[in-house]
Design goal:
By secondary structure, this protein is an all-alpha fold. The protein contains 21 helices and no strands. The chain has helices at about 1-30, 30-55, 55-60, 70-100, 105-120, 125-130, 135-160, 170-185, 195-230, 230-250, 255-265, 270-300, 300-310, 315-325, 325-330, 335-340, 345-370, 375-400, 405-430, 435-460, 465-475.
Length: about 475
């Protein structure tokens, strides 16, 4: 698992670095309204991509008995299904533009429809690469695609493509991902496929798909409603604060999650080992996530303005609020891999239903009663914290036949550490008010890292010195 995390980390951190640079450039040239318009189209595209996937990828990873003919039939299904959904989305382009009273959404939707077909086509070859645990190849592929698409996006905005420069990455990435994955794992395409192959993975994939479906609405309904009932500019501000809040998840848990399911699926018949192994990950993520939440809160203004520019100051309050949910999201985002590895996608679906109900209520209250993106942010934050506890109650009390107390014991010490850090940063924040934003960000960040590192080393929770020594020694070799 360590090797998988290492290569996944390299790819993910490289991608985040590239993405930040590209976004920083585009955010200084394009307006919040333009980002808001593309955010609407992107959210709808994500929905269609989820429909094409219908839980097939994780099901292929989990199922150890699929043969070449089965995979060929499933691959053929994804091709045809992707084509059908692409056509449907093209037909819906004009109604979408009319509904949001934004004519430019129509051509944007036409272009983005390309991504639907190729995202569907790459599902099976990509799942086989993950099943083989070829994380080194995955890392190299991801980095290459992100770098190339990012360069093309930056060039296009300077050539005057305007809002269409924001479409380069999703379209080009989907095409390249399919081509590279298919070359690595070529699969025979059939004009006529046998539905029996799909039945072999249906019991797993159906609940995975239903979970993805409701999770989609809980994650994206806010953007759809804000874009319609507030305005595209407000959506642009909110989308930037939300995306920046999600950055720690990409930085940390998205390094773990792709590796966890392929590895932990080997423990699907040993819940005790699966539970014990996962608690170690929860403990580590809690010591990272909770202090990080506090640091993000106290550096919110510096981060938003330094990365996106002064025109995005309206995004700061929402980011401050959402930062308090970061730790819970960092841990919670890994839970899906454990539900999958334990063949408990049905329970995962139930958790998703409860999560979606609470999140939707929070969004509706924020938009229609308070009518501000800050109110939506508060609702999202509260719903995430509540959903954290319901998800782990279902996992430990229902799936593992254990107790959620194990999770609470894991996160309690990191919370204590974080409360102390909050008090320190509260004082430092006043001292750095008149300083340059970069200097202020550096002081708060360095202090937080040193404080948490000293705490973990002093109490011997983790041997930080030994870990650093091993890393340096490995690099020197």
């Amino acid at each position: 698992m360590t090797v998988g995390i290492f290569f996944t980390a390299i790819a993910k951190y490289s991608n985040i670095f590239i993405s930040l640079i590209v976004t920083a450039i585009l955010a200084r040239i394009l307006s919040p309204e333009e980002f808001g318009i593309v955010a609407i189209a992107t959210v709808i595209i994500v929905f269609f991509n989820m429909l094409t996937e219908i839980g097939i990828g994780p099901a292929i990873v989990q199922n150890k008995e699929l043969n070449k003919d089965d995979l060929s039939n499933i691959f053929s299904f994804t091709i045809w299904f992707g084509l059908i959904l692409t056509i449907i989305f093209v037909l819906l382009a004009k109604p979408i533009a009319i509904y949001y009273e934004t004519p430019i959404l129509e051509p944007i939707s036409y272009y983005l429809s390309i991504a639907i077909f190729f995202n569907s086509s790459q599902i099976v070859p990509n799942a086989l690469i993950y099943k083989d645990k070829d994380f080194k190849f995955i890392a190299l592929r991801s980095f290459s695609i992100q770098l190339f698409a990012g360069i093309i996006a930056v060039i296009s905005v300077f050539l005057g493509f305007g809002i269409y420069a924001l479409l380069i990455n999703p379209i080009l990435s989907s095409i390249l991902l399919f081509i590279i994955s298919y070359i690595k794992k070529p699969i025979k395409f059939k004009l006529y496929f046998d539905i029996k192959a799909l039945k072999k993975i249906l019991s797993f994939s159906i609940y995975q798909f239903l979970f993805n479906l409701i999770n989609y609405f809980s994650r994206n309904l806010d953007k759809l409603i804000i874009g319609k009932y507030l305005n595209n500019t407000m959506l642009g501000y909110y989308e930037k604060s939300y995306r920046l809040m999600m950055l720690p998840l990409q930085t940390i848990t998205h390094v773990f999650s792709p590796v966890m399911h392929p590895i932990f699926s080997d423990y699907q018949n040993d819940f005790q080992k699966l539970s014990d192994s996962y608690l170690k990950i929860v403990k580590l993520l809690a010591y990272i996530g909770f202090p990080l939440s506090v640091l993000l809160f106290f550096t919110s203004k510096e981060l938003v303005l330094l990365i996106f520019g002064m025109q995005w100051e309206r995004s700061v309050p929402s980011f401050e609020i959402l930062s308090f949910s970061v730790a819970f999201q960092i841990i919670l985002s890994t839970s899906g891999s454990i539900f999958q590895a334990s063949n408990s996608t049905k329970i995962m679906f139930l958790s998703g239903v409860l999560s979606t109900i609470l999140t939707v209520v929070a969004i509706l209250v924020g938009v229609f009663y308070f009518k501000t993106i800050e109110a939506v942010s508060i609702g999202i934050m509260i719903s995430i914290i509540i959903n954290f506890f319901q998800a782990y109650y279902l996992m430990y009390n229902i799936v593992f036949k254990s107790s959620i107390i194990k999770i609470i014991k894991c996160i309690f010490p990191p919370i204590v550490v974080t409360i102390i850090l909050f008090m320190f940063l509260y004082g430092i924040n006043y001292i750095t008010l008149e300083l340059n934003m970069f200097i202020s960000l550096s002081i708060k960040s360095i202090f937080s890292i040193l404080y948490v590192t000293f705490y973990l080393q002093f109490l011997k929770i983790y041997d930080i010195k030994r870990m650093i020594y091993k890393l340096i020694r490995r690099k020197s070799i």
